[in-house]
Amino acid sequence: MRTTQNPADTSTWLPLDGLAPGFDANKAPLSGTLAGRWINLTMADGTRIAHKFGTESVAWSFQPPGHAVQEGEDPYEAFEVAPGLFYAQFQHVSSPGEAVSLFLDLDSGRALSVISTIGTASPAQTAVGQQFITGTIDGAEVEGSEPAPSTALVGGRVLWEYSTEHAYEHLYLSPRWYTWQCLSGPERGLADTDQQTTYQLRPGIFVFAWREKVVPCAAVTVADHRDAAALRSHGSLFGLHQDGSQPVHFTFGAHGRLLSRTTHPAAFDPARSW
């Protein structure tokens, strides 16, 4: 499908709520493995978070150091990224301008939480900001390295297919920037360069999150890059409705493959800007 939009006029670009229909066709089946489990976390900043997962909702309590406990319960979706590694996504009912992407490695006892918050765009800030906080699972035997920023994707060019209609390529430019281009679907012909953050969860498995400046939204994905010919990702998009009055939040999935990889001379390697 070819877009009828004028790529040079960003005011005509498809809003986030216009992208949703059909974009989730390659979403993975939901996992029920977390249901019935208590998972308590101690985050790197000392915050304590308790999660009680049900079949469709998660009850949580949140206590930053020196502050009172906050509690809530929200609908959630969970995906199994790899054996023992889970991704849970939820939006706060009480604060709909905030969404949580929670990555739990039950084998290593490690966790990563990405908090996406809708704010106000400015020349120095995108409309949706993101915070990355590492932690450990209480009672688990903690092993290996904690989730950490990574430059491993820099230089890669990947094709991602979200449905039979929606296809995009990603060019991972540097530790801070990536370029996307729509190859098929209602945004065909559109492209932009946006800010990104990459964390490694396990060797070859990365959280890749980006923040768009034209459409007020941000995404969090977790992608398995271990097989370059059969990549798999799970993720969510979170931002504002076209009318700017309410959040839009949905999950999706994609199949991908590595198209090429650029190797820069050492003196010009953008990964060294980390």
Please, could you describe this protein's structure?
1% of the residues lie in helices and 51% in strands. It contains one helix and 17 strands. It has one helix spanning 16-19, and strands spanning 38-43, 48-53, 57-63, 70-82, 85-91, 98-105, 110-118, 128-137, 148-149, 156-161, 167-172, 177-184, 191-202, 205-212, 217-224, 231-240, 247-261. An eight-stranded antiparallel barrel has the order 1-2-3-4-5-6-7-8. Strands 10-11-12-13-14-15-16-17 form an eight-stranded antiparallel β-barrel. The longest helix has 4 residues, at 16-19.
Short structural summary:
This protein is mainly beta and 274 residues long.
The outline comes out as globular
Strand content: over 45%
* Major sheet: 8 strands, antiparallel, barrel
Provide mean pLDDT, rounded: 95
Tell how many strands the DSSP assignment holds.
17
Distance N to C terminus = 38 Å
Count of alpha and pi helical runs: 1
| H/E topology pattern | HEEEEEEEEEEEEEEEEE
How does the helix and strand content classify structurally?
mainly beta
Overview features:
single chain, mainly beta, eight-stranded antiparallel β-barrel
List the helices and strands and how they pair.
Blueprint: H1 16-19, E1 38-43, E2 48-53, E3 57-63, E4 70-82, E5 85-91, E6 98-105, E7 110-118, E8 128-137, E9 148-149, E10 156-161, E11 167-172, E12 177-184, E13 191-202, E14 205-212, E15 217-224, E16 231-240, E17 247-261
Antiparallel strand pairs: 1-2, 1-8, 2-3, 3-4, 4-5, 5-6, 6-7, 7-8, 9-13, 10-11, 10-17, 11-12, 12-13, 13-14, 14-15, 15-16, 16-17
